[in-house]
Amino acid sequence: GKDYEYSAAKDENSRISYLENQIRELYHLYHEKLEQNPLTEQLVEIPLFMHLVADGSYHDPDRIDRYMVVSKEFVRDKNTTFAIRLPDDSMIEEGFMHNDLLIVDTALPIKDHCLAIVMHKGVQSLKKLFLREGKLYIAPDPGPDGLKQVSFGKDFRLLGIIQKVIRELY
Question: Fewer CB within 10 Å: N-end or C-end of the chain?
Answer without folding.
Answer: C
